[in-house]
Amino acid sequence: MTKSKRASGSDLARLDATTDEDIARQIAEDPDAAPELTEELLERAEFFEGDRFVRRVGRPQGSGAKELVTLRIDREVLAHFRATGPGWQTRMNDALRASLPKPAAARHPRRGSNARLVEEVLQSSSPRALHPAEIRNALQRDKGVAMAFTSIRHALDQLETRDAAEQVGDTKTWRQSRVASQRD
To answer: For 45-94, how does the pLDDT look when each residue is reduced to its tens digit (9 = 90+)?
Structure first.
């Protein structure tokens, strides 16, 4: 060994043979390794010199769904929220949001509601018989309900089983059954 070269104490050939994948795997396996710095992380970073805060980069990102307003709030309410520390305006917004009425949960109509609606249309047109297309138009016009022809046909079958509707002869028209009209 010449004087200008010293033993480095490491296996340089093994180090040169290490691939980027090997390095990434070793970093991922090391619990003390810091995450890789990306542009996104640097954009959101807060900078310190020792324990002294130097600067924060921009405001925290908002949802973009809020509107700046001037609002008169009771001092007692304002003091309460300010006393909770940073983020008090968000907490006040959350409290106001919680007081909003809850939207009606989207749910399926109750079983048999189509048959009930079709029966009401047949009752209102009694004693006249209606084609399914006329029933459908009446549902849309009078009840604000859009119903498929297969659903109307199924409802008519249910009503026929309960003797609430009957098909007129061999026609494709339906009316409130005589038994049902005598009950009313």
So the answer is: 777 788 887 766 666 666 678 888 898 999 999 999 999 998 899 899 99
Q: CA 104 to CA 5: how far, in whole Å?
A: 80
Number of domains in the chain: 1
Per residue in 84-134, pLDDT (tens digit) is 998 899 899 999 988 988 776 555 667 778 999 999 999 998 888 999 999
Q: How far apart are the first and last CA of the chain?
A: 115
List CB contacts of 15: < 8 A, sequence separation 6 or more.
none
Q: For residue 160, what is the domain's CATH number?
A: 1.10.10.10
For residue 141, the enclosing domain spans: 113-183
Give the pair of three-digit tokens for residue 35. 């995450």
- For residue 147, being part of any structural domain is answered with yes
